[in-house]
């Protein structure tokens, strides 16, 4: 019987973002590290910048269509305008169940040839793959004028074992 190794965890990479423009730029830089088959899970409070980051990812990946929050459609596919992978942007906020409820979206079919970004995916999509990039965005709660965000990136699984996420702080 084949044993399953625990996923490799890369070191956490903390970043401080001070504006929506910087959050978009982080997305554009992160897009350069992504490839088809990657799952990116975003977590953070409402208004933390998850969709702004994803918009930057879409720009960096060169996909068609404006990247907006897919809250009411649950998932939106943005085809590549070039030879890169499409971006599948999922908002799991309104989905209560785990992977069972997500199966209707056929994310497992899309995963191998797309970059899938899931907002609010913790506890819901981990079973898709052991290889994933966790992006946690923290902001000051209650003070809506504060644009500072503390972003922590951590790669899980063999896919991310050799990836230096520290290049994103440059």
Total strand count, please?
7
Contiguous helical run count: 5
Order of helices and strands: EHEHEEHHEEEH
Span between termini: 45 Å
Q: Characterize the overall form.
A: globular
> Which sheet architecture does the biggest sheet show?
7 strands, mixed
Strand order of the largest sheet: 1-7-6-2-5-4-3
Q: Nearest-angstrom radius of gyration?
A: 15 Å
**Estimated share of beta-strand residues:** 15-25%
- Compute the average pLDDT: 83
Which stretches are poorly predicted, pLDDT < 50 over at least 5 residues? 1-7
| Share of helical residues | 10-25%
Which structural category fits the helices and strands? alpha/beta
Q: Please, could you describe this protein's structure?
A:
This protein has 170 residues and is of the alpha/beta class. Helix content is 22%, strand content 24%. The protein has five helices and seven strands; from the N terminus they run βαβαββααβββα. It has helices spanning 20-31, 50-61, 99-102, 107-111, 158-161; strands at residues 13-17, 39-44, 75-78, 87-91, 115-119, 132-139, 149-156. A seven-stranded mixed beta sheet has the order 1-7-6-2-5-4-3. β3 (75-78) and β4 form a beta hairpin. α1 packs across α2. The longest helix has 12 residues, at 20-31. The protein is globular. It starts with 12 loop residues before the first strand and ends in a 9-residue tail after the last helix.
Descriptive key words:
170 residues, seven-stranded mixed sheet, 22% helix, globular, disordered N terminus
